[in-house]
Write a structure and sequence with these properties.
Strand content: 25-35%
Number of helices: 3
Largest sheet: 6 strands, mixed
Distance between the termini: 18 Å
Order of helices and strands: HEEHEEEHEEEEEEEE
C-alpha cells in the first residue's frame, strides 16, 4: 500500500529535502515529547509530521536488507529491560555501512573531546538492523543525497538489540564489508531487528 499517494512528487521532494537537511532538531523534539508524555504538534521546525508519516510508509522492503544507523549515544541508555528501543522519532538509516560509520564517528567526537591526553578513544556506535521483507523503510536516496542510500524508518519503530556488540578496527570486516577508519578509532556494532512499526 502506498501511504504517500496524496503527496505529489515535488511536494514529497520538498519534505524529504527539509528532513535530510534539518532532521536533528525534529527528532530531538519528538524524543522530548515522548519523554514528557505530550503529543507533538502537527508541525515542528517547519516539518509537517503528517506528510513525513505518509512518506515514511511509502515503501516496504522487497527483500531482507541490512540497514545501518550511526548513533550519537550509547544505545544501552535507550534500551528497556527486554533490550528493545522504542524510537518515537523517525530513524535515518543507510544501506551503506560506510555512511553510518561517518555519522557514528562524528557522534563520538563530543564524548571523546572530554578524554585526557593518552586515553583511548571511546568506540563509535552503529546499529546494524536486519530489516525484513515487507517492513517499512522509505527510500529517500532519489530525493536526498543519493550516495547516502538513505532509508527512513517511521515513527514508533521498535527494535530489539543484541546486548553484546562486537568491536571493529580499521581493516576488519562486518558482513563481508571492510571497515575504513583511523587506526586509533573503533566501531561498536550492535545487531538488531525490527519488532514493531505501529501507527502513532
Amino acid at each position: 500500500m502506498t501511504f504517500a499517494r496524496f503527496l505529489d512528487e515535488e511536494t514529497q521532494k520538498s519534505h524529504i529535502k527539509r528532513y535530510t537537511d534539518m532532521s536533528q532538531n525534529l527528532n530531538q523534539a519528538l524524543w522530548q515529547h515522548h519523554k514528557d508524555g505530550t503529543k507533538p504538534p502537527s508541525k515542528i521546525d517547519k516539518h509537517d509530521l503528517a506528510a513525513l508519516d505518509k512518506i515514511a510508509r511509502k515503501n516496504i522492503l522487497t527483500k531482507n536488507t541490512w540497514l545501518y544507523s550511526g548513533l550519537r549515544h550509547d544505545p544501552t541508555e535507550m534500551m528497556d529491560s527486554n533490550n528493545i528501543i522504542h524510537f518515537p522519532s523517525f530513524l535515518s538509516t543507510s544501506e551503506e555501512l560506510s555512511v553510518a560509520t561517518i555519522f557514528a564517528i562524528r557522534g563520538s567526537w563530543r564524548v571523546n573531546s572530554y578524554l585526557k591526553p593518552g586515553e583511548p578513544l571511546i568506540p563509535a556506535d552503529i546499529l546494524a538492523i536486519k530489516a525484513k521483507k515487507g517492513q517499512y523503510a522509505a527510500d529517500l536516496s532519489k530525493k536526498s543525497i543519493e550516495k547516502e542510500s538513505e532509508r527512513m524508518l517511521p515513527r514508533n519503530t521498535k527494535i530489539k538489540v543484541n546486548p553484546n556488540p562486537e568491536i571493529f578496527k580499521n581493516g576488519d570486516y562486518f558482513n563481508g564489508i571492510p571497515i575504513h577508519i583511523k587506526p586509533e578509532e573503533s566501531l561498536r556494532i550492535w545487531t538488531a531487528e525490527i519488532v514493531s512499526q505501529e501507527w502513532d
